[in-house]
Specification:
Blueprint (H helix, E strand, L loop, with lengths): L11 H5 L7 E7 L6 E7 H44 L3 H27 L1
Antiparallel strand pairs: 1-2
């Protein structure tokens, strides 16, 4: 739930401009659970900092997930190379052959769709 971030009694701007602080924002919304109207008094710089911290934490989480996926992929590649060398399989040839098979399958499916449309 959103809480007030404006501290009127402690704010230098609020006192200086006699209640007409340039950073003061008032937001009104209806609470989902209770249906009551809620008014929140915000100091724009404080609210922006709170939102920036939230976004920063989310980006850190995304970066961490991306890095772990990258590391996992690298690990799979290393294991595949080692297994390929130990078992005598030429992995480059295997991958190229698999790509060729997938491309042929895709072409066959495209031709089938074209024949159905005719």
């Amino acid at each position: 739930m959103a809480e007030d971030t404006c501290k009127k009694e402690e704010c230098w701007f609020w006192k200086k401009f006699k209640g007409r602080c340039p950073n003061y924002i008032e937001s009104t919304f209806v609470e989902k659970n209770t249906g009551r109207t809620k008014t929140v008094s915000d100091c724009a710089p404080v609210r922006n900092n709170i939102l920036l911290i939230d976004i920063y934490q989310r980006l850190e989480g995304l970066q961490s997930a991306q890095e772990s996926m990258r590391n996992e992929t690298a690990w799979v590649q290393v294991v595949a190379e080692v297994l390929g060398k130990n078992s005598g399989i030429d992995l480059e040839h295997f991958v190229e052959e698999r790509r060729r098979q997938l491309k042929l399958q895709e072409l066959k499916e495209t031709r089938l769709i074209e024949e159905e449309n005719d």
